[in-house]
Automatic annotation (TrEMBL), chain A:
Topology of the protein relative to the lipid bilayer: Peripheral membrane protein
GO cellular component: plasma membrane
Location, primary (coarse class): membrane
Lineage: Bacteria, Bacillati, Actinomycetota, Actinomycetes, Bifidobacteriales
Descriptive protein name: ABC transporter ATP-binding protein
The entry's keywords: Antibiotic resistance, ATP-binding, Nucleotide-binding, Transport
TrEMBL record, chain B:
Keyword Transmembrane helix included in the entry's annotation: yes
Transmembrane segments: 30-54, 66-89, 110-134, 146-171, 183-202, 252-274, 329-346, 352-376, 397-420, 432-458, 479-508, 514-537
Source organism, top-level taxon: Bacteria
Protein name: ABC transporter permease
Keywords: Membrane, Transmembrane, Transmembrane helix
Protein's organism: Bifidobacterium vespertilionis
Amino acid sequence: MTYDISAASVGQPVPGPFMPAPVPPNPAAAVSIRGLVKAFDRKVAVNGLALDIPVGSFYGLVGPNGAGKTTTLNMATGLLRPDAGSVMILGHDVWSDVNRAKREIGVMPQGEQIFDRLTGLQLLVYAGMLRGMKRDEVVRRAHDLLAAFDLKDAAGKMVVDYSAGMTKKICLATAMIHSPRILVLDEPFEAVDPVSSANLRDILVEYARTGGTVIISSHVMALVEKMCTHVAIVNRGQVCAAGTVDEVAAGGELEDRFMALVGGRHAAAKLDWLDGGAGSGPAAPDQPTAPGQPAVPGQPAASGQPAVPSQPAQTPEALR
Amino acid sequence: MTESIATIVRLRWALTFAAMRKSVAQTVGYVITAVIAVSVVIGAAIAGWMAGLLPIGDDAAFLGSLNAAVVFVGSVLVLMIILFQLLYLGQGSTLTPGKFALYGIPDRTLSLGLLLAGLSGMPAIVGVLGMMLWALAYRGLGSAAVIGQIIAAPLFVVVAMSLSKLVVAAVSSLVRSARGKNLFYAIVVLAVILFSQVGGALTARTAIDGSVQTVSVRVESLLVVSDVVSWTPFGAAFQLPFDAFRGDWGPFAARVLILVATVILCFMGSTACLRHDRLTAGMSAGQSARASTTASAKGLGAFARMADSPSGAIAARLFTYLKRDARQTMLFIMPLLFVVLMGFQSHGVTPVIWMGLAMGSWFMFLGEGNGLAYDGRGYTMEVIAGVSGFTDRKGRVHLLASLATAYILTLALGIFVFTGDWRDGDLASLDMALVGMALGLSYASLGLAEVLSVVLMYPVPPIDKPFSTPQGRAVAQGFFPFVQMLGTPLTFLPTGVLAIVMGISGMFESSPIWSVRLLGLIALANGVGILALGTWLGGKLLDMRSLSVLKTLNGFASL
């Protein structure tokens, strides 16, 4: 299912100045954004962004650093008031009744946005009870989530004692405890080990299969390509391209498409002084080493062989 | 080495100016600080000039008393500087050793750089100038005494700074566990308050003539004490001008040696702490946190006992945090402390102790007046969940009012038994009225706190570093609590008006016991009313300002 958005038709670069979106918000979409604008002082972070996220999709929001992904998600989830534009969640305008919208969604907090002096179990119970759930039900679900996220043994430990990956998992669990219809996750797999990551993916895919909508922001193209059904590429506060992953990739690799739309790649900069010590050391690999002399003091070198095998320099094209 | 040290000192001022550019409040704060600094220097000069007019050189007994007083007051001053540094300033947040961890600066160079950066600051400069100008006081004693004081001035500042840095570094390095921090914070607060009572301990009421009490200093005890402390790093600098005046060059040199040795030892100690921190810094956040936090908890804890509702969750979370947060220890100390202090001052007049209870209750919720800042970015969870402001306020008030009620009533029962007031019916009535007033004041203070904490927030140190200083805290922290402190009596205006009406109507004369009882009830009702109003208004304000509050808390976290 593809939605035609005026400012961001699939694969088309965004026109320069912001044009008001002529398409009205789509009440059938999980999230429908129109003409979203946010500026911090004089810097425009989000510039008339428009996007529709279908119900039941696994939606990836990708873009370079500072593209406006997190700002957009914050405005869509009622955590940041937009300067202009509208956000509709499941047919309801977010900013006319922000707490109602928040009850429909589950936003994953960052590690520093939780009360980390609570134990893992207490944090989940807190998150559930805050949303008006009954304690018995919250406790039951909390134990299920702890088991699903391999945190059962750490249930009684304070979250501050968790590793970065464990913290990420408990943050994700707090967003899921009330079984929201939409999950909004900012870099959910960062610092999570591959096994836990795979387990998390299974949970999220199953959730999307049952009709839930997952929105993730990520820098990892491979992950988005593998998991998401839909993707939007955001750059300079606007959507460059949006649609299913295949549509946006347009027959190529998603990463190549991303590079082409976002730009910014340039020839590898050569910094003369950044030589790994080769320029100053007496036995640098690019300096002639006398046969039989060790390239690194204390280490024998093969006669006549360079201490470090030389590699052909990669051109920017090769890197692409 | 010199270059690194100069860079650290330059960095200090660069950061100060950068903070001023970034925030108008900071600039205003610095201007106020500068005005105070100039006033202190001018004040020291005037005090020195005035003291110099006294014929101190002619009267040996008077000179001895002045000598003892100066040494004693100076020593207390050094101790207070250390304690206040620990309590209110701590390690600056910008120039912490941790910030330089990546650059491989040798410990000794870094330690020296941080010390000199501290000495180049405004308090140190003001200290040196003020103490030098105090030399005017000794002009009647001759040039030797004046020069002695001019030498003593920088020594005093360097010693006070070195001792403060050592104590702060040692505390930061060694007091790691959450429980240890709580305990230590409480001890420091008590020490500050006890030191402020030292003056009282050394004075004696020598005569009571009608209603007039004359107070004289116990000169003998002061002489002994100051003689001893003049040989310690705390008082040695203040003895130097007197040694110079008397020509006691041996003791003069010995004292200078003590001061220099103190600076060297403090420097070595600070460097050792720095090394200790650096060697343990390799631990991951989880590992260091493991060392600093208490053991794991089984089950739901407070979450199993509070109401099964969003406000119950907020109350349970707050209760769990109050037990684990050293910064909010004052909540539990305040009423007990006031009762004990007033107990010492009561001289058998038991209502004075009850007044202590009322005062403690009044000041009990000063921290809650900045409660959201103590929650920090954790408040985001409430915003994400769409919790209404009223639910938040209700949860907090429910818990804190229950704690205050239980605490004040228990304390009241203790005082009742301890003083034996229960034997006297009239006195018991008065006590009950004062208990009503104490409860009312604590409720009113809490109600006001629930409003103020939404609008007047100031940065607090992070929970894992209760002895650190976020930038810009000093000015706001000095001012904002006063709003609550002075605002609470204002909320008692209805009680005051009714008391005046009762006074005018002659109720106190006709039936004093019943009037007092009634006034206690009115105060209690007044407090409950303000609490309800504060909860409602605070909730409304929080609904309106929740995103601004979140932005402010994010701003505090980045300090």
